[in-house]
Amino acid sequence: GKRVNYAKPLSMLIVLCTIYAMLQTIMLFSMGEESGENAGTLIGLGDHEKNTAIKFVEMVVQWGISKIQIVLPLVMLPFYALFTKLLFRRNGAKEFNYTEIIYICIFIASQTVIFNLAMLPAYWISGDLESSAFLWIEVLGQIALTCFTLRQLFKISWFKSAWKSTLMILLSYLSAVILFVGAMVLVILLS
After folding, report:
1. CA pair distance 92, 154, nearest whole angstrom
2. SS3 state at 43
3. Nearest 5 degrees, angle CA 121-CA 149-CA 112?
């Protein structure tokens, strides 16, 4: 047998997240110039101070968003894998070890980032990056891609796949938030 070359999934996810974060930052910067012009007037700054303050805040926000877009899918992978293993154990997940489930979740996360990349032109055309409609489209896209992939993998019904995929995503985010808040409380208590 000849060994088949394939794209390394974790590297692919990191590259996709980086591309997405860079494109989103560029879009935020170009759209922010149009939308942020009146923000300094509201807090009583002069023209020069207003422009300097707005540029600084925009840079900080863009930097933060780009870092979150790169790190979030990677941070969520263990949670996705854990809840996929738990929720789909009766549907065939017990046949896979935890590492294989992580690779499946990397594949799903990569699909989600590709979907979000495909959504960027819609953001650009609308000119509104804070629209909750686009956030819901991204969330529903993530659920749909997860549902489709896990349905194909475990050969289950659409309803069962949609229900368990939604629950898996919600439990993953809830666990991550609880862990983050717990860590923050622990840091505050220890300092």
Report:
1. 6
2. coil
3. 25
End-to-end CA distance of the chain: 58
Q: Could you tell me which of 94, 58, 99 has the C-alpha nearest to residue 81?
A: 99
Give residue 64's identity as a one-letter amino acid code: G
Query: Kind and range of the H or E element at 45?
Result: none
Give the number of other Cβ atoms within 10 Å of residue 49's Cβ.
Answer: 12
Residue with tokens 């985010």: 173
- pTM, two decimals, is 0.74
Which pLDDT tens digit goes with each residue over 44-99? 445 555 566 666 666 666 556 556 766 788 888 999 999 999 989 888 888 888 88
Those residues with Cβ within 8 angstroms of residue 102's Cβ, 6 or more apart along the chain or in another chain = 77, 78, 81
- CA distances to 85, 93, 117, 163 from 13, in Å: 21, 22, 12, 25
Answer whether 77's CB lies under 8 Å from 105's CB: yes
Task: Look at the block and give the residue holding tokens 């489709």.
Answer: 148
Backbone angles phi, psi at 110, to 5 degrees: -65, -40
